[in-house]
Write a structure and sequence with these properties.
homodimer, 83% helix, 8 helices, mainly alpha, 206 residues, 0% strand
Chain lengths: 206, 206
């Protein structure tokens, strides 16, 4: 399921960068696979919980599986969403030579890949390194959004395309968030330690 | 946790409609509560799974709880996101008299409220009715987006505010998605029947 999610985002972005529409059918087919994966994974996790009554690490693994498929399934949806924006963009000439967006796309894909690797390897250290990279993705989004605003203000004919590009950047930012969630769950699975909201809660009142 | 999510979205939208900034501190405080609720709920669900080894309906309830808190936690984040956009909007005069966005906001809040009610009551029929309403929310988003595009094209000075309003509409659309997820989980919890992706998978190849 994780491999299909990676492939989905990869193909959607390939369609964007190469201006090709053929890959989009494949993204949609992957999404249907990912949807089925989600349902099958949940069914299996529940069956194991009912029949084997696992504890400690095994229980955490199953709880993680139940949660993690939600993030993966949304990544599959995001692949489709990006494809739809790419189709709309392909109907017009490119707004500009894209520089930041491909770099953001690369970085986001790497983050997702490393989060899934950390899960498979049960590597909490690697998961921590993934989490640290989310600020970079967020910074890319802000930068791209600001740049797109200037294009919109320059010429009204840019507005529609700029909003499509902004959506793609926003979807990438959300893939980064999902990768972060995956990585946080890996830490929980391996160490039994819930690090979600750690930054936010420690800096605020109890 | 559900009540806090409702309140968070409600306050963020009140801040938007009344142009008031005071409510935003409360939204942020609610978000921190919701984050803690998520962690506590997960801890409790795992403890019950480990100690009681539940089966059938009880097991489905716990699996639902593990999944559902993820959607609720994101709704808490969305409350904060909406507040941030409201703060940015408040720095300038309103773009136009808002008509559709308050209606969309009302409808989204009702959907969330009804999804949570269906969970508490274990009412699968009510959950089905919630799911059907998501198309309306999506239609509102498309309509608002199109209208905002025309404002952007009319005057460059509208662009920034229009992008803030678009974000708010998008966040509402996502609250609708989360409410739909909650409702689908209620059906699963009550009937043991996984209806996710039902429409999408039945209309496509096996």
């Amino acid at each position: 399921m994780g491999a299909r999610c990676e492939r989905s985002v990869q193909l959607a972005l390939k369609a964007f960068i190469e201006g090709s529409a053929e890959l989009i059918a494949e993204v949609k087919s992957l999404d249907r696979h990912i949807d089925r994966d989600e349902m099958e994974s949940d069914e299996l996790a529940l069956r194991i919980l009912a029949l084997r009554q696992p504890v400690a690490h095994d229980l955490r693994l199953l709880a993680t599986a139940l949660k993690l498929v939600t993030d993966l399934e949304r990544i599959g949806d995001i692949g489709v969403n990006i494809s739809e924006r790419v189709l709309e963009l392909n109907q017009e000439p490119p707004l500009k030579p894209y520089v930041d967006l491909p770099v953001m796309a690369e970085e986001t894909q790497r983050m997702l890949h490393d989060a899934l690797d950390a899960f498979v390897a049960g590597d909490a250290e690697a998961a921590h390194r993934v989490i640290e990279r989310d600020v970079t993705i967020d910074a890319y989004y802000s930068q791209i959004f600001r740049e797109l605003l200037t294009y919109m203000m320059e010429d009204v004919r840019n507005i529609y395309r700029a909003t499509r590009l902004q959506s793609i950047a926003k979807y990438l930012e959300r893939v980064g968030d999902h990768a972060t969630n995956l990585a946080e769950m890996v830490v929980f699975m391996v160490k039994g330690q819930d690090i979600r909201h750690a930054g936010k809660l420690s800096t605020t009142e109890k």
